Amino acid sequence: GTLDANFVDHLTQGVLTNNTTVLAQAITLIESAKTEHQKIAVKLLEKCIGHQTESIRIGITGVPGVGKSTFIESFGKLLLSKGKRVAVLSVDPSSNETKGSILGDKVRMESLAKEQHAFIRPSPTGGSLGGVARKTRETIILLETAGYDIILIETVGVGQNETTVRDMTDFFLLLKLPGAGDELQGIKRGVMEMADAIAINKADGHNKKPAESAKMEFSRALHLFAAKDNGWVPKVMTCSAVENKGLTSIWSCIENFVTLSKENGFFEQTRKHQNKKWLREHINHILLRDFYEHPDISKALSVLEKKVVDGEITPFRAAENLVKNYRET
Ligand code: GDP
């Protein structure tokens, strides 16, 4: 009713003016599983669309310990020094209030978090990878509406996560450790192929030389892959997040990528394609939610489950019957 409408207006104004308290509150609403919260969130998102700042969405992945949070702190500060407004999100489906997260419960990126033009949001807690991804995509819209023009999306390299983050970003950066000989074998071909750039981190101290040889090995390995549709040739670089080295080159690389892909139309095309994918995924989400939350369905499902377990009906027939009933309700 009117109350909700006022609340949506309050949130929209807060997000548009980058009132970080309201922004955080709006993100919490997006992350909430409650139906009434979701309804407000949808209205808020509708108001935000069209007010988004032009942004670059950058995915950053790598195994635990590679230096993701250290890198994001240093890289984030470099971007701030260039007048950018930086938001950091993470996609970590393991994060959960009781279990704790792979990315750690300690306050991460504390010094970046203190900066005026930086905004850091930990991964939404609980839920499937699909759920976390959906919330993250909606949060990106809010952040862009609030004026953040660099969105860094971090994930732990554990397989499925990378694909999910790839699907919501413009540029995908893979962080690796020096010691290519062993590393090359552990690396999943699919993840290498997704990367627009590989940065070998911790290229400092006695790791400088191994980092350089890792760089050569990765460059060679990348040449085995077919060129990307967008004409971009993935780059391999070294950096040190603690010593602040190589970060400027990584930023130039990203700028070059954006220039190229905007010129050849690939930037827009990728975002459109991603939107189409999000549409499909969201439809799937809504349908499944409506189905399983339907009171008749949940009752009928437990009856059918027992019948399937007792061998009275096949799982296939049971599923057909249940969906048929749902269509008729
Ligand atoms: P994450 O798990 O990928 O987020 O990794 P962290 O950022 O927490 O870093 C893991 C460890 O590696 C920490 O002890 C960091 O201080 C260290 N580290 C991160 N970046 C560098 C680097 O560039 N050089 C060196 N020598 N150590 C680093």
What do you see in this structure?
The protein is of the alpha/beta class and 329 residues long. It folds into three domains: 51 residues, Single alpha-helices involved in coiled-coils or other helix-helix interfaces (Up-down Bundle), CATH 1.20.5; 213 residues, Rossmann fold (3-Layer(aba) Sandwich); 50 residues, no CATH class. The chain contains 14 helices and seven strands. The chain has a seven-stranded parallel beta sheet, with helices on both faces. Helix 10 links the parallel strand 6 and strand 7. It is globular, with a radius of gyration of 22 Å. The two termini are 27 Å apart. The structure holds guanosine-5'-diphosphate. Guanosine-5'-diphosphate binds next to helix 4.
How much of the sequence lies in strands comes to: 5-15%
Quaternary assembly: single chain
Summarize the main sheet: 7 strands, parallel
Q: How many distinct folded domains?
A: 3
What is the CATH topology classification name of the largest domain?
A: Rossmann fold
Bound molecules: guanosine-5'-diphosphate
CATH superfamily of the largest domain: P-loop containing nucleotide triphosphate hydrolases
Regions with pLDDT < 50 over 5+ consecutive residues? none
Which whole number gives the mean pLDDT?
89
CATH architectural arrangement of the largest domain:
3-Layer(aba) Sandwich
Helical fraction equals 55-70%
Which class best fits the helix and strand makeup?
Answer: alpha/beta
Query: Number of DSSP helices?
Result: 14
